[in-house]
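Why run this: before we spend reagent on co-expression, it is cheaper to look at a predicted model of the complex and decide which construct boundaries make sense. The entries below are exactly what would go into the expression plan.
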Amino acid sequence: MAKLSVEAKVGFFVIIGIIILSYMSMKLGKLSFKRDSGYILKVFFDSASGLAEDVPVEIAGVEVGRVQTISLMNGKALVILKINSDTKISKNVKAIIRTKGILGDKYIELVQGTEQAPFMKPGDQILNASPATDIDTLMKVLEEVAININKLTGSFANVMGGEEGEASLRTIFENVKEMVETLNLTVQKNNTNVTQIISNLSDFSKKLKNISDTHSDDIRSIITNIHGASEEIEQLISGINKITTKLNQGKGSLGKLINEEETVNNLNDMLADLKNITEKINSGKGTIGKLIKEDETADRINTTLSGINDYIRKQETFRTYLNYRGEYLFNSGDVKSYLSLRIQPKEDKYYLFNVVDDPRGKDSITDITRTINDSTTTERIVETERDGLKFSAQIAKRYYDIGFRGGLFESTGGIGIDYYFFDDHLMLSMEAFDFDPDRNFHLKFKADYTPFNYIYITSGLDDFISDEGNESFFIGAGINFSDEDIKTILSNIPLPTN
Amino acid sequence: MIRFFEFTGKKFISIVEEFGKVMLLFLSAFLWMFRKPFRFRVIIKQMEFVGADSVSVILITGAFTGMVLALQTYYGFRMFGGESLVGATVTLSMTREIGPVFTALMVTGRAGSAMAAEIGTMRVTEQIDALYTMSVSPIQYLIMPRILAAALMLPILTIISDFIGIVGGYLVGVEFMKINSGIFMSKIIEFVDLADIFNGLIKSACFGLILSLIGCYKGFYTKGGAAGVGKATTQSVVYSSITILISDYFLTAAMF
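The model came back. Tokens follow.
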């Protein structure tokens, strides 16, 4: 095996390190371009105790978003949830703070209501919220129960306890005992009396039997009287019956109203008409029927609406950035300037157009081959145009924290790779371009740090494997405007008025 | 009595003096970074020495540290049935603490001592004076490349150490201790943040700066022949290790 050169060894080592770092950050990092998409819901809790920012929001155990902020408003905890944009939540949803695991991590569970309810819009408030039943509240309830029991036993003790209570209890027991004893005594003493009472009762019933036997005729007449009365009642009922039959036959004004066939027919006709209309609507006849029944209509309205939605969404993610950066090259002491336009149709991809003013100028190489008497000579003319501008046009695509770029770099073909750190505040990039077989290709490493919006600082190594002595450190700065900012600036420029 | 005060004062002044010298050396090395001529080949040579050549040492120490961490935490967590947390514990300790510190200590032993010995030998054999006479700045030619290489290479060594340590922990936890591999991984993803890794890497870059600076300083100011070189080498390892462990506490307190 041929011995590796120093450069190859270091390069291999660095690349292994970067691959491991990327792999680990991919495993651990969230989808970076998903971080900003999503919508916000508000919810008020009586207590957000134990809840922290960035804890998950779950529906049926599936994470659908995160808690964004927790703040105090009107004595209640205002919790702002960021829900993934692909999750629809119905209006009658219920938010509950729940506890996970033995360590007691809190999270928010959303319990979906019925499906018919309309979906929540961004910024809506979840009305139905119940805080966690934490140990404290549980303890409070238990405490109340304990107090009540205490009171009860206390009053009981008041009644029973003490010498007075004891004494009264004792007297009660003594009284009961006495009563039972006297009862016993009475029964024993009056044993004969009791037997007599029973025999008297027996006598009495015998006598009663005798009376009914002797006066059986009287009793019978009483029964016949009752019979006669019931017959009279029967006659009364038949009279009432007669009146109702008259009514039924349509006699008298009341009967007429009830029995007139025409009225009934009219009513029947009316009902039939109504039925007819609803049938027509149901079968989709007539304009209203068509509107209501035609599936196509509904579909069309739906597609129109979703089309409008898509359009608006695309408009929202579409961004344009205008960017200037200057780099001071320590090697030559010159400033290299870039003016770039970045068009970003989606959050994870963009197109970049650059105009570069390179102090080293732009080389144009002409090879002239002459053949004189079978011998060819090649003459190379390198013209350097100091004021020449170079152009870049690149497409870029981002996966997680890594972005790839390809296209024209300073008027030559090339590729680039970007790595984003700390919520995109820091970006490391490596670019390779100008693949000329006669010399080493142009490698550029840079780190861009964006402490605030608009302004960033940059530092790096330019052309550091150059064999023409062009290698250089550089530091620089840049400003970056998005279309939103440009819009604001333009709308604030006073227009000339006549 | 006065002599005691004198002794304390002298010691204190010499410590402050030494610290100031180290800082001045760092400052001049930093400034020389931006001055021509740029000797990229020298820097890359040092990167190879500090970084690429240390990989085998780092792989072995990292793997066994991760394995022993998994073994120890497994016995601890088994007492209350928390075996599933072994992966997260190993990963957090590796990325936040053990990866950066062990890597720095290993590189101190391997490269920091070599820096002191090399520059020290050049000093006592008057090669550094020869550089001056050739109007080559020894700070730019000898010291700046070493400091830059160590500060750049230490994070890469650390990430390799982190990764191989987690792999070692996985091996012990999942293969030997039969923890469910899915739970092992999901707990890592649940509990470990990217910030844990990045802060560990920032720490390791600082350690790289410290160990190379102290190694170069001790070598650069070597006195007294071969014995002096030996002394400088020993001192550079001891001081670097102590400074790394002390600064580790303050860096951790500041970052996490």
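The mean pLDDT of chain B is 91. Chain B touches chain A at residues 33-36, 38, 40-41, 44-45, 47-48, 51-52, 55, 153, 155-157, 159-160, 162-163, 188-189, 192-194, 197-198, 201 (CB under 8 Å). Bring this page to Monday's planning discussion.
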